[in-house]
Amino acid sequence: MLRIQNLTYTIGDRDLLKELNLQIRPGKRIGLVGKNGAGKTTLLRLIAGIYPTEKQVIQHPKDYTIGFLPQEEIAFDDQTILELALSGRPDILAMEREIHQLHERGDLHEHPSDLKRLGTLEEMYRLHGGYELEFQAKKILSGLGFTPPQLEQSITIFSGGWRMRVYLARLLLQQPDLLMLDEPTNHLDIDSLEWLETFLSQYKGSLLVVSHDRFFLERIVNEIAEIQKGQLTHYSGNYSFYLKKRAEMLEQLEKAYEKQQAEIAHTQKFIDRFRYKASKAAQVQSRIKQLEKLERIELPEKESRLSFSIKVDTPSYKHVLEMRNISFAYEEENWVLRDIDLDVTRGERIALVGVNGAGKTTFTRLICDELRAQKGSMKIGERVSIGYYAQHQTQALNLEKSVFQEIEEEAAPSFRTRLRDILGLFQFSGDDINKKIRVLSGGEKARVSLAKMLLSPANFLIMDEPTNHLDMSSREALEKALYEYDGTLLLISHDRFFLDRLVDRVLVLENGSLTEYMGNYSTYLKKRAESRQADETGPAAPEQTVPAEPRGNRKSKEQKRLEALARQQISKDRNRLNKAIAEVEKKLDALTAECKAVEEKLADPATYNDAALSSGLNKRYKELETQIRAKEHRWEELQMELEELMSKLDENA
What is the per-residue burial (b if ≥16 Cβ within 10 Å, else e) of 368-403? Predict the structure, then answer.
C-alpha cells in the first residue's frame, strides 16, 4: 500500500497541493480528475520520485514498485520494438543471461556450486514467468496495435505516438505494484483502447489514472479522486457515480451554506439590536463568541461554463453526399479503399471508426477533394458547404496573423459579435487572442483551426479528432454546440463518450470496406459483440428483462400528495412568520425611535421646569420600555418558530 500524508507542494508563492492525503490500497483503480493546472500531473511525478518530497510524506514498502507513463514523448535507444518491451523486466533478462553463460561453460559436473546455482536460477526464472515473457510481450504489443513484422523493426522509424505505445507495453509487462498513467488514451486507436481497458480491468496491481477520456474512466476505475484547491475529495465509484454524487454534494453544500448564512445573519441581527443593552450583555457576548468559533462553509469556485451554439445559415438540400464504387490507392493496386458505396442525407450525424491506418483520414480527404479516387464516382449535393478539421489543417494558417484576425476573417456574420466569448471555449482569453499564429504551440494551432472551422458558414462538418487538445469543460461545451447543430456531421474521434452523445450512425472502415451500424457508439459496440458471439458460439441468448420494482418499494400517489400538501403548508407558514417578523421589527424601530426622543427631552434640564411635562415624559418612557421588551420577546419567539419550521423544511426536502 502507498500512503501520502500532509503533502504540500509549492510553486513560487502558490501552494499547488496543500496538506493532501491519499491512500492507494492494493487492487484500487483510481481516476484522478480536476481542471487543467490543478496539479494532477505534478502529483503523479511526486509519487514517481521525479520531483523531490520531504521524508515520510510518501510512504510505501521497500520492495514496492511504481510504473509511470508520462504525457510527453520518451527518448529510446536504437533497439527493436520487442527488445524495448522486454527491457521492462531487467530482472528476468539478467537471469536469462546468467543461465545462458552457465550453460555455455559445458563443465558444470566439475563445479557443483555452479550446477546448484544453475538449478536455483532456472527455478527462479520459471517462477518469475521467464519462459512466458516473450509470449506476453508479443501479446501486449499486438493488443496495442503492432503487427508481427513491426516487432523486429527499430524504434527510430516510429512516430512519437507509437513510441508511447512501446513504453506503455514495457510498463504493462513489468506489472508494477502501482501503475500510474497520465493521459494513456491520447495515442491509441479505438481497438487498442478497448484492448487496454480489458487488460487493465484484470490488472492485479493498483492503478492511478489521469484521463480526459470519460468512457475510459467509466469502464476502468472504481474510485475517483478530485483535486480542487490543492486538496483531494474521494468518490467511491466510477465516473458516472462521481458526476452524480458530486452534483448531490454540491447541492447539499449550497443548502448548508444558505442555512448557515441565514443563521449568521440572524445572530448578527441579535448582536446589533442588543449590543448596548445591559440586560442582554451576556447573551450578546455568547453570540459573538459563537460567531467567532463558527467554522464557515466555503463554496467551491464556480466553474466557468463555456457555451456557444452553431447554426446553419444556409441549409443544404436533402442529398449531401453520394459515393458509388469508390476505390483509392496511394500505390498501384495497393487499395486503401475498395468499392465504397455511401449516401449521406441532410442532418445525419455519423461516426467513422477503424484502427489507425485503416484509411479514415484518406476517406475524409476524398470527400473534401484533397485526393482523387482512381475508380468510382462521388457527388456533393446542392448548396453543401463543407467545413473540414484535421491536424494537417494547421498548415493552412497564416503565421503572421493574430488568433483573433485568423478566425474573424472566415467567421460567419452571425458569430462576429461574439468572437471573443467563443474563443474562451478554445482556451484563448485576454491577451492570448492577440498572439501571432507563429508563436503558438502545435496544440494551440490545432485549436485555432478547430475554432475557425466551427465558426465558418459550413453546413456539413467533417471533424478528425476534434477533442484532442481540449480539456474536459471545453469538450463538454463543444459537445453541447454540436448536439444542437442543425447541419450534417461526420466525426472521427477516439473519445467514445463524445461519439455516444452525438452520433446516430456508425461507419466502420476495415480492410478497405465500410460496414454500417445504426445507433450511437454504445449500440455499435453491443451489436458488434453480439455478432462476434454469434460467429463463435451461435446466436446469443435472448436478453432477460429486468423485473419491475415491487410496488411496495415505491411511494404511492397518496403519499406524494400528502407530502406535497405538507410542503405547501410549511411554505405558507414561513411566509406568514416572515411577514409577522417584519411587522414586529417595524413597530420596534418606531418604539425605539420614540424612546430615544423621550430620553433626549428628559436629559434637558428645562423639562423639569414643567412638573406636568416631566411627569408625563417619565410615564411615557416606562410605557415605551415595557412595550419594547414585549416586542423584543415576541421577535425572539417568532425567530425560534421560523428556525423550527426551516428545520422541518430541510427534513422534507
Answer: eeebebeebebebbeebbbbbbbeebbeebeeebbb
CA distance 163 to 69: 12
The rounded distance, in Å, linking the Cα atoms of 270 and 212 is 50
Helical H runs in 6-86? 40-48, 81-86
Distance CA 321, CA 514 (A): 15
In this prediction, residue 169 has a pLDDT band, given cuts at 50, 70 and 90, of: very high
Q: What pTM was computed for the model?
A: 0.65
SS (H, E, C) 463-506: EECCCCCCCHHHHHHHHHHHHHCCCEEEEECCCHHHHHHHCCEE
Does the pLDDT of residue 610 top 90, yes or no?
A: no
Instruction: Report strand pairing: 375-380 vs 319-331.
Output: antiparallel
Q: Tell me the mean pLDDT in the region 393-398.
A: 76
pLDDT of residue 650: 53
pLDDT recorded at residue 550: 40
Percent of the chain with pLDDT over 70: 90
- For 314-330, give the DSSP string: S---SEEEEEEEEEEEE
Distance from CA of residue 232 to its chain's centroid? Answer: 15
315 contacts: CB under 8 Å, gap ≥ 6: 346, 383, 459, 486, 487
Measured over the CA atoms of residue 79, residue 84, residue 86 and residue 87, the dihedral's sign is positive
- What are the grid coordinates assigned to 365, written together? 480527404
- 261 grid coordinates: 448564512
- Residue 40 burial class via C-beta count within 10 angstroms: exposed 0-12, middle 13-18, buried 19 and up: buried
pLDDT exceeds 50 at position 543? no
108 has pLDDT over 80: no
How buried is 579 (Cβ within 10 angstroms: 0-12 exposed, 13-18 middle, 19+ buried)?
exposed
Mean pLDDT of the chain: 83
Give the type of residue at 333.
E
CA atoms within 13 A on the CB side of 574: 14
- One-letter amino acid of 449: S
The H-assigned helical ranges of 204-325 are 214-220, 239-274, 281-293
pLDDT of residue 535: 67
